[in-house]
Design a protein that fits this description.
The chain is an alpha/beta fold. The protein contains 34 helices and 30 strands.
């Protein structure tokens, strides 16, 4: 035995398991023989390995009944049973009542298990208790025991204690294969448990195609973590107790005491601290760990995996025999990293029950997920259900059939719509519409664009095709809103056409702000509803903010609003979400071919809603609102599919680049980005003068200094980023005293020419910054400037001399004249003296920085949101261009 390094000890753990010593080949041969020869082979192998001739493997029940158990066996059984009964009682049935689905997770016992009880150098009835009692408590119906012959009386007594009466006198790997594959005498089981030698464990490793196994339990292991105060006699005794299981056992001491390490007859690792020993134990992952230190309990609770025994009063044999009811069937070979000691959990199986009550609400995301993985038939399986139950469902509630229809303007309800020629016939000798009989486009188009509807994939009664979604917006006003009487609500900031259409139709428009994260404030919105509120407009993903609206909020608004909710989903294809169309009977969803489908020039849009709403829109629309060219092109585009992958990847790239400028970029689920930049209108004009056109949204509610940029091609995006980079100002905020001028360290005040001295490298450094395109901004605290202690003339004399000598012009100079006790807002590290400058200057925050020599300068940099470059007080001027 020797004192090992940690590396040597861990290396010993990594040795191959039974692969290179011929064990695998031996066991594989036994497996084949048992499968083919059954009982005859079992008898042959039992005679060979156990030196016993067996005719009938099953132990008679009367022999089991006669077995007498000593009292100590009953004590252990009671404690093991108590632990497992409590574990079973505290298991909870898991049920989730989700949005459109129900889930139930239920546990039930395995039907049959096989327990292997080893023989060898000692008899192990304790293992039978550790396995049989959890099985019984779990409710396993059939428990099979296999143990090498001859079966001892104490093993039979243990079997009797657990209620086991199917015991076979078969040991070794042949017993494992008999329980897994079955023979004439032994019916196969569903899962096999129990420790054993390398042959038994190798056999269990070969059962992956046949039945379950518990854990990999090899030769016994113990790691003892002890400090210098541990009793060497106890340590030695505990190590020897585990070595007693056989010569393959792994016993190691980890200690802070070299003297203790050298006094025991075992391998040891000496560590510098108990914490180092704990860390090593968590790497080593022994089957059993004993902790014998000054703070045993605290230290032991930091060790994870296997069985841990706390303090000098506790030892592994106490766990072996159920003192606390713990289980001694534990993974070895480092497997406690991912496996646990056997418990009642191992004798249960979990069954998952799923019921979907509303496929559209519950499974809307599944088709996209399946298509991403190339499983189109998976997607189709779900789509058939979402279409059948949501897309085709009829509106049957009282609200939908009676009350909601009363929202339609009375004159529209009574309106007899115009009947156009192509409604009555579209083939034959067509002489009914005063068309020219000649010409490429001489015939009127389909008034309802039926083929386009079909290609779009929404049930025909539930879809309106219009001249862009703007036509649908206008028609909704015409259908539901009395001019000069009714009103609508827009959830702002949002698409401007809702308000424009309201004004055109002489309908009052009330603006309700979204929340700070641009979501619907349901309560605030509903509290603003009046008896004359007919429509509520929202956009998701929202234009111009780009974010998806929370679906639950949308549907709650629909449920509680006795009017029509209009959700504009012009950008939904760019989002990782499905449409909410047809999820409420008073919801109109607007869609378009202008965005993801790349067909803005066609002016083809859609409204998806309940049949009665679509019927009303068709009553008031012009006869031929979508021309034939647009219908034909739309069919071709829908057939070809969308091409948005590049847009999505470019969206993330542009977002990252904008953030590299230090700009605030709002999360986007659309094909555009909203970002905040000082003097946004000025930046927008500057971009346009250089050939890049973006949208100024800074005049909208909540969007001060915000611009919106659409995602173009990579080349277009590069052009935008390049021009924006030219417009954004790189700022060098520079402290004065101690950085530009020498600062006396007695009074810290440069108030005379006698104290005046420009520091090395300043003039050259400032010129380099100017040449690199930086604005130079001086930021300096000059305590008491303009007071008796620091007259203005004294300050100006030095300041003007410095500006003249430097030969470099500062773009801005900000001086705080206050004393610390004045508690002003402008003294560094506060940003008060530069706040107005920051507000009025579009800044490249990523390239800007503060140069200073004090912590207050570095804090100022953090408060502004730029880098801080700290130089040595009165040292050489830093060169930030090299940092």
């Amino acid at each position: 035995m020797a004192v090992l390094s940690k590396k040597e000890a861990l290396g010993r753990r990594q040795k191959p398991v039974y692969m290179d010593d011929g064990t695998w080949e031996v066991v594989a041969d036994i497996k084949q023989k048992v499968i083919e020869g059954g009982d005859d082979v079992l008898r042959e192998l039992t005679a060979k390995f156990d030196k016993v001739e067996i005719e009938d493997f099953l132990v008679p029940k009367d022999k089991i009944e006669k077995a007498k158990a000593p009292g100590f066996l009953g004590i252990a059984a009671d404690r093991i049973r108590k632990v497992n009964e409590k574990m079973l009682a505290e298991r909870k049935l898991l049920e989730i009542d989700g949005d459109g689905y129900n889930f139930r997770l239920e546990s039930s016992p395995i039907e049959s298990v096989g327990l292997y009880v080893p023989g060898g150098l000692a008899v192990y009835p304790s293992s039978l208790l550790m396995l049989g009692i959890p099985a019984k408590v779990a409710g396993v119906k059939r428990i099979v025991l296999c143990t090498p012959p001859p079966v001892s009386g104490i093993t039979l007594a243990a079997a009797k204690a657990i209620g086991g009466d199917e015991i076979y006198q078969v040991g070794g790997s042949q017993a494992i294969f008999a329980m897994a594959y079955g023979t004439d005498s032994i019916e196969p089981v569903d899962k096999i448990f129990g420790p054993g030698n390398k042959y038994v464990n190798t056999a269990k490793m070969m059962l992956g195609d046949r039945c379950g196994i518990d854990i990999f339990a090899g030769p016994s292991e113990i790691l003892i973590l002890a400090d210098e105060k541990a009793d060497p006699r106890l340590i030695k005794a505990d190590l020897e107790s585990q070595a007693e299981h056989g010569p393959d056992g792994d016993c190691i001491l980890v200690t802070t005491s070299r003297e203790l390490a050298e006094s025991v007859d075992a391998d040891a690792v000496v560590v510098d601290s108990i914490q180092e020993g704990i860390d090593f134990a968590n790497q080593y992952r022994a089957e059993h760990t004993e902790v014998v230190t000054a703070n045993s309990r605290e230290d032991a609770l930091k060790i994870k995996g296997g069985a841990v025994f706390i303090g000098s009063n506790t030892c592994v044999p106490m766990g072996d025999y159920g003192v606390s009811g713990s289980n001694h069937v534990i993974p070895t070979g480092g497997a406690t990293r991912f496996q646990s000691p056997v418990s009642i959990e191992d004798f249960l199986i979990r069954t998952e029950y799923t019921e979907v009550t509303d496929p559209k609400r519950a499974a809307y995301f599944v088709p996209k997920f399946a298509e991403l993985e190339g499983l189109r038939k998976h997607a189709q399986s779900v789509k058939l259900r979402t279409a059948a139950i949501s897309g085709l469902q009829k509106i049957t509630c009282l609200k939908g059939t009676i009350i909601m229809k009363n929202l339609i303007r009375k004159n529209v309800q009574a309106l007899k719509p115009y009947t156009c020629a192509r409604q009555t016939a579209n083939e034959g000798i067509l002489l009914d519409a005063n068309e020219n009989p000649r010409g490429k486009y001489n015939r009127y188009p389909d008034p309802y664009a039926a083929e386009v509807k079909k290609a779009y994939g929404v049930p025909t009664p539930n879809i309106f095709v219009g001249n862009g979604s703007d036509e649908a917006i206008d028609l909704l006003f015409r259908v539901f809103c009395e001019p000069g009487q009714d009103e609508v609500i827009t959830l702002d900031p949002t698409y401007g056409m809702y308000k424009v259409s309201a004004d055109i139709n002489n309908v009052a428009c009330k603006s309700i702000l979204l929340t700070d994260d641009f979501q619907i404030d349901v309560e605030k919105t509903l509290s603003s509803v009046s008896p004359n509120t007919k429509l509520i407009f929202a956009c998701s993903p929202n234009n111009p903010t780009g974010n998806l609206l929370n679906e639950k909020n949308v549907l709650e608004l629909c449920e509680r609003f006795e009017g029509i909710a209009v959700l504009d989903e012009a950008y939904v294809e760019f989002a990782d979400a499905e449409s909410v169309a047809l999820k409420a009977d008073n919801l109109v969803v607007l869609r378009t071919l202008s965005k993801a489908w790349g067909a803005a020039g066609l002016r083809v849009g859609f409204a998806i809603a309940a049949e009665w709403i679509i019927e009303s829109m068709n009553k008031v629309k012009p006869p031929y609102n979508v021309n034939k060219l647009s219908q034909d092109a739309a069919l071709e585009i829908l057939k070809e599919g969308m091409q948005i992958e590049e847009i999505l990847s470019e969206r993330e790239r542009v977002k990252s680049r904008l953030e590299e400028f230090g700009l605030k970029v709002f999360p986007s689920d659309a094909n555009f980005l909203l970002f905040r930049v000082s003097q946004a209108s000025q930046v927008q004009k500057g971009l346009q003068e250089n050939g890049v056109v973006v949208r100024d949204r800074s005049g909208m509610p909540m969007l001060d200094d915000c611009l919106r940029v659409s995602i173009g091609t990579p080349e277009q995006n590069d052009g935008f980023l390049e021009e924006l980079g030219k417009i954004l100002k790189k700022i060098a905020f520079i402290d004065r005293d101690g950085v530009i001028l020498f600062e006396p360290q007695d009074d810290f005040q440069v108030d005379s020419l006698e104290k005046y001295r420009i520091l090395p490298g300043v003039s050259e450094g400032l010129k380099k910054l100017k040449a690199a395109g930086y604005m130079l901004v001086m930021v300096s605290n000059q305590d008491g400037r303009g007071t008796e202690s620091f007259p203005e003339d004294d300050f100006s004399l030095v300041q003007n001399k410095m500006l003249e000598d430097l030969g470099v012009e500062f773009d801005e100079i900000f001086i705080c004249p206050h004393f610390v006790e004045d508690n002003c807002d402008c003294k560094k590290p506060k940003t008060g003296m530069v706040d107005e400058f920051l507000k009025n200057t579009p800044i490249n925050y990523a390239e800007s920085f503060v140069i200073g020599d004090r912590e207050s300068d570095m804090q100022l940099a953090e408060n502004i949101g730029v880098r801080g470059i700290k130089g040595e007080t009165n040292g050489v001027f830093p060169n930030p261009l090299e940092s």
